Amino acid sequence: MGIRDDAVEIRSQGWRTLAALHGLIESELERSLQAEVKLSVVEYTVMDALSRQDGWHMRMQQLARAAALSASATTRLVNRLEDRGLLTRILCADDRRGIYTELTPAGRDLLAEARPIHDATLERALAGAREVPELAPLVDALPLLHAAS
Questions:
Q1: How far apart, in whole angstroms, are the C-alpha atoms of residue 104 and residue 133?
Q2: Which helix (H) or strand (E) holds 125?
Q3: Which H or E run includes 100?
Q4: How many CB atoms lie within 10 A of CB 148?
């Protein structure tokens, strides 16, 4: 294996480690959120992204980026959450083609209930991952990523 091949293998191993950590965390979050508040991880992610916006709303394309979803998947997700009374869509006042999505009062209440469940589950999942030798360095690096941004 040449130098270039070694570098590719190192990056590939890093990616596999990151994917393993992500999968572990996401499955724990999915179980907890579904069991406690009947939300999927992606539903929580969308609602959390909306809650962090000034005015509590986002354009659909911004929401798609925040949730790492395609435009059509975002539309289906927003439709489901809207049917449950957790989100609403409103027309943009300065651009009639633009549609904003925002949390309803029921959505804000459910998010407030879900957030401590999410945070506690995330903490438990990270603590468990820290016990896996391959994942521990990545878990330990997470606070540094936040500090660098």
A1: 43
A2: helix 105-130
A3: strand 99-103
A4: 6
- What b-and-e string marks burial along 52-75, b requiring 16 or more CB atoms within 10 Å of the CB? ebeeebbeeebbbebbebeeeebb
- Contact between 26 and 67 under an 8 Å Cβ cutoff? The reply is no
Mean pLDDT (the chain, rounded): 90
- Token duo for residue 56: 């509590």
Confidence band of 84 (pLDDT split at 50, 70, 90): very high
Contact indicator for 117, 33 with CB cutoff of 8 Å: yes
- Name 149's Cβ contacts closer than 8 Å, sequence gap at least 6: none
Whether residue 82 contacts residue 89, with contact meaning beta carbons closer than 8 Å, is answered with: yes
**Helices 3-37 & 41-51, crossing angle to 10 degrees?**
90
- For 49-81, the pLDDT digits (tens) are 999 887 667 888 889 998 899 999 999 999 999
